[in-house]
Amino acid sequence: MSGDVVDRLVRELSAAAEAAAGIAGTAPGGARIVEPGPDGRWYLVALEGPAFLCLRADLEPEESLARVDEVARACLLLESAEALIDAQALRALAPAAAALDPWSADMQVAYDALVRAAEAAAHLADWADDPQRAVASLVALDDAIGRQDRARAAYASFVGATEPLVGRQDSLDADLVRALGAAENAAAAAGLADALRSVLAGGMEQIGEGADEITALHVTPLQ
Known about the structure:
The protein has 223 residues and is an alpha+beta fold.
């Protein structure tokens, strides 16, 4: 099934790039399928120049400035999120949790919380690796934010449950201390220290500036 999805998306993107090149008379670069909301699909194509062309689902140029701005913002927001989500780092939390198994009976609440965090992190990694990420969908972004929220909540429970251990580290098994440190480092590398929603919100000014540049460089008139 995933192979069929990939083939369909490749054909769709190739058709959009070819249509954009024919309209603009210049070579296309990258193309992205964009869904700013639950209804509607556009194609944002980068062209030599640099220049851009936003196509409707019928592969005709979008004429609305407001719509192109919306499509550009959605595309840039998804790209920002994707840059922050490291699937490999997210999956590395599972072995870090497994390394605490020898002490799980003595710290059951903390261990269970970290296992939940690792499972939620793996679900976020699955999101990042899904071929559907070729589609810049704000609905899909909401899903990713929810997955990260669940991973962060579980990890926060782990941190709270292990807090009493901080004051008596000197009396703990050295291997346990190392395993706890490795779990903390893995969670940080997985991006669980900061809420994805908040990080993206902090970058909205830059995203707006990028959208302005795209609309300014649009090869067909906008109104």
